[in-house]
Amino acid sequence: MGFSLEDVERYARHLVLSEIGGPGQQKLVAATVAVIGAGGVGSPAALYLAAAGVGTLRLIDPDTVSLSNLQRQILFDNADVGQAKVKVAQRRLSALNPGVRIETFAEALTLENAGRLIAGADAVLDGTDDFGVRHAVNAACVAHRVPLVSGALGRWSGQVGVFAGRPCYQCLVPDAPPDAETCARVGVVGALAGVIGSMAALETIKLIVGAGEPLEGRLLLYDGLSATTRTVRVAADPDCPVCR
Ligand SMILES: [Zn+2]
After folding, report:
1. Is the pTM of this model over 0.85?
2. What angle do CA 107, 209, 10 make, to 5 degrees?
């Protein structure tokens, strides 16, 4: 498959990178990425993945845009309040890069439909803040052998991890914490969503083109208040019901 002159210009900064180049850009164009949640993490991630030329983006989110989303969910603007997030996102991402195919699913991901929603994806990027959804996404990714890039944030800090088989996300978080903190309850700095969403998009691009060392089996923790990061290994849980 060759690139049009327009593609060569659009992806010029990728094409000169030795880790991407023509072959890597072909992989991006051929790839399907499922983005779970068009929220704080999913917004910048989807924008960068569309800009990067990922061939098919599958957006899964049951919500409509609300005013309180606009502080960090940069896919949306004031006129979008009340509209379905996936439909607004589809318009915005298609305007950014008409070559990207956008599939939309305005439904909540559950244990029952997760397999259908991620089927055929080369990578899944999960930016939801609901542990039930996160565990369902993880189980489907392990069952279908699809790598999972997970981003989470709250207050001033966030984390990004890549799970491909074992250890899995369930090894890291075996149970949903009973008093799980959500951004709605504890707050979050908007720009932090940009940091974590962009890191998640970057890890997804690395996975697709095979560049560098993926964050696989590791968790990168970013503390925005102290401007520090650290990376820790994720241990496989010997009793994990999902990946064991
Ligand atoms: Zn596991």
Report:
1. yes
2. 85
